[in-house]
Amino acid sequence: MIKFDFKTYVNNYFSSEELADILNKKKDVISKFSSSNMIGWTRELDQETIAEIKKTGSYIKNNFDLLVVIGIGGSFLGSYAFDKMFRKYFNDDKFEIIYAGTTLSSKYLDELVNYLKDKNFCINVISKSGTTMETTITYKILKDVLKRKYDSEELKKHIIITTDKESGKLRQEVNKKGYKSFIIPNDIGGRYSFITPAHLLPLSINYDIDKIVKGYFHGKRLIDSAYLYAATRYLLFKHGKFIENFSVDEENISYFCEWLKQLFGETEGKNGKGIYPTSTIYTRDLHSLGQFIQDGNKILFETFLRVKDNNNYIEYDNRNLNEINNVVIDSVIRAHSTGNVPCLEIEMDELNTENIASLIYFFQLAAAFSGYLFEINPFNQPGVEIYKEEVRKSLAN
Ligand code: PA5
Predict the structure, then answer these.
(1) pLDDT at 397 > cutoff 80
(2) Does the annotation mark 158 as catalytic?
């Protein structure tokens, strides 16, 4: 179960009339959203695709030591964040997956090549456009490792491409070389692509994707909460709270904040508008950014993602440490709200794959609604193109 509290700690920041005004816009926002041609992520997945994903996931698990996922932004963050959340901190026993393609660090890639050279690995390269520089470079470098070991027939067994149905260099490569491939549908953008093979294939190796898909679409029931959350954030922004700090109290969940930052950052940050997303992990960051949040410039509000389970993993002084952690976070929320920091809470009774998949759908809805409240297109990212153009010009010289 997921519980939302967008009210308790934001009482004094805007009037009930302002809230009513934004809530009155709900019909209009939902109608704009429903008529968008980029909401393929609200469509149920066909059984054939699910079956093919599962089959390929088992193939990878049964035939290789590890999988290297190559992708960046919306083409990796969903499965990366999800996977990180459910791994053990130590002695993790899940199938190994390396997420590459997010850096041009030659040190990292050199070490990766050395790590992989004697391993039996499979590559899943994921790029909707098929032209993303970091992905292309990493793919070429790692494909060369495979080419040094295998002939073209054997190579085919080690490469899986997830890309657009028709366009782009990767699709051309699939057509030419006959590599196994999956499609990212036209009407789904990168950061909204969790419910596509881009994320479900890597996840299918270690998780029951039927549960993930079920949980994700369960998120449809959260539409009212998603709008209320979008409306609350928007009003806080109107009252000078320009930054949203996502806070978690579990290191593993912090990767989900990276997904959130991309979702909201690329969705809202346009035409000089939008809320800047950032994150903290508690209690660690109470001893760093906590000072700023409590006592610094009052430009931010905080959204706490909490798991309030009763598991008694370990005790301290005859008390359940989980309870102590919860008492600390409750206290932090009270302290920050008295410091003029509005706090919102999203609480799960259990950290499980269904709940997280539902939250993904919830946040995608909220981000899209927020885009319409800010009167920008939630589904493009023109700003990202500008650095790419600069790089193209500089590398051509
Ligand atoms: O959300 C987005 O659309 C972006 O973050 C893309 O996912 C990212 O730029 C990677 O693009 P591509 O999948 O075309 O390689």
Answers:
(1) no
(2) no
